[in-house]
């Protein structure tokens, strides 16, 4: 039996920039929101706090749930390596008590090579996943058309 993985991610916008994890794979650099898989026995918020400490090295203040998206690997560009991967991601609006405290976290993902503030005006020039959310950043605000985005990448 294959399991569905649950995850939480942080959407942090400050000074017209979004905080992203810089990743590298065979096809180059790409960006994702900070966060990751939920562990058994922890809430989504607890998991997100832990993941942010691991990836961006600082505490986050977790706000409201912005949207939920699914990622069913066999339906997307990484189908060969993600064929049996299914994840439900819960994305929260977050802020940083101390924006200057971002640094090396305690534990990086395998492909993580850094952390970067991406100007919202430059987002369309970056390989930012999931690509489909890029148009939802308008005038420094993130506003998705629905709180459930379905199976997207």
TrEMBL record:
CDD domains: NUDIX_ADPRase. Gene3D superfamilies: Nucleoside Triphosphate Pyrophosphohydrolase. Keywords: Hydrolase. InterPro entries: NUDIX_hydrolase-like_dom_sf, NUDIX_hydrolase_dom. Residues 3-142 form the Nudix hydrolase domain. PROSITE patterns: NUDIX. Its cofactor is Mg(2+). This is NUDIX domain-containing protein.
């Amino acid at each position: 039996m294959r399991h569905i993985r649950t995850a939480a991610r942080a959407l942090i916008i400050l000074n017209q920039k979004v905080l992203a994890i810089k990743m590298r794979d065979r096809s180059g650099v790409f960006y994702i929101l900070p966060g990751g898989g939920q562990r058994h026995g922890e809430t989504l918020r607890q998991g997100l706090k832990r993941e942010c400490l691991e990836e961006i090295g600082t505490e986050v203040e977790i706000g409201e749930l912005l949207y939920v998206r699914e990622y069913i690997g066999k339906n997307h560009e990484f189908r060969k390596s993600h064929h049996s991967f299914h994840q439900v991601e819960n994305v929260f609006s977050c802020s940083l008590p101390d924006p200057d405290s971002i640094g090396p976290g305690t534990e990086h993902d395998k492909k993580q090579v850094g952390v970067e503030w991406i100007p919202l005006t430059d987002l369309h020039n970056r390989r930012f996943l999931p690509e489909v959310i890029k148009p939802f950043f308008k005038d420094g605000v993130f506003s998705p058309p629905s709180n459930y985005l379905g199976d997207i990448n």
